[in-house]
């Protein structure tokens, strides 16, 4: 038997201490880390109006931006906006470049396999938009036509499902580039959201773009890493409170000129 002061005993105690220290670190979760840092790092694509954009003074505005600002304020944390792109939202979570994502981020089965989502806080429609003069009443009317989409988005995925084989889908890397193509007349048909079509008309009224087909209604949620139940519980609680008190509806209405739909305000239990 080793004496309490023997070298072997000291090595055993040192190893035990390291194991206990490791166990303690494993128990510390992301919410503790965020609260200790006194900062909430939120990944937001800054070119998805009206969810996120810059005003004429280069200040960040939009419904997602204000949602993030309100959340950080209510949590008593400094907000750090981490600029991202639509295709980088999941990788930024997985590589710890951001704590959460609030960026026109809708729930899909594929995403839910690798990250977690909060309860929904807003909707986004997937539509096909085109000039008012163009007749498009069904997917069949897209045959032989060029359609643009933002690569890797649900818009892209839903369009791909219904587009005739003779249609040509041109994919851009972000919504800003897609919008430039529409505003300038390089493209006439875009799979996107109704509000982005509105922005096209604001930038170039002669385009006279309207929604032709609704492909899907998506539910937006906050994205977070897997295995963080306390952080998810805190964010879910915040969303439910701010849906109940009308704050999230006020933010949405300010930028989208519409009320949150019943499935967001009164979700099925």
Describe this structure in words.
By secondary structure, the chain is an alpha/beta fold. The chain has helices at residues 7-27, 30-37, 63-75, 89-94, 109-112, 154-162, 175-184, 194-203, 229-244, 247-256, 262-265; strands at 39-45, 53-54, 60-61, 78-84, 100-101, 115-117, 122-131, 146-150, 168-172, 190-192, 209-220, 223-225. It is globular and about 55 Å long. The N and C termini lie far apart (61 Å).
Topology:
Blueprint: H1 7-27, H2 30-37, E1 39-45, E2 53-54, E3 60-61, H3 63-75, E4 78-84, H4 89-94, E5 100-101, H5 109-112, E6 115-117, E7 122-131, E8 146-150, H6 154-162, E9 168-172, H7 175-184, E10 190-192, H8 194-203, E11 209-220, E12 223-225, H9 229-244, H10 247-256, H11 262-265
Helix pairs in contact: 7-8
Brief sketch in words of this structure:
With 269 residues, this protein is of the alpha/beta class.
Quickly list its features:
3-stranded antiparallel β-sheet, 5-stranded mixed β-sheet, 269 residues, 23% strand, single chain, globular, 12 strands, alpha/beta
Largest sheet: 5 strands, mixed
DSSP strand content: 15-25%
- Count the beta strands: 12
Query: How helix-rich are the residues, as a percent range?
Result: 40-55%
Low-confidence stretches: 18-27
The coarse overall form would be: globular
Could you give the order of strands across the largest sheet? Answer: 4-1-5-12-6
**Helix and strand string, N-terminal first?**
HHEEEHEHEHEEEHEHEHEEHHH
Terminal CA distance reads: 61 Å
Rounded mean pLDDT score:
90
* Alpha-beta classification: alpha/beta
Number of helical elements: 11
Radius of gyration: 23 Å
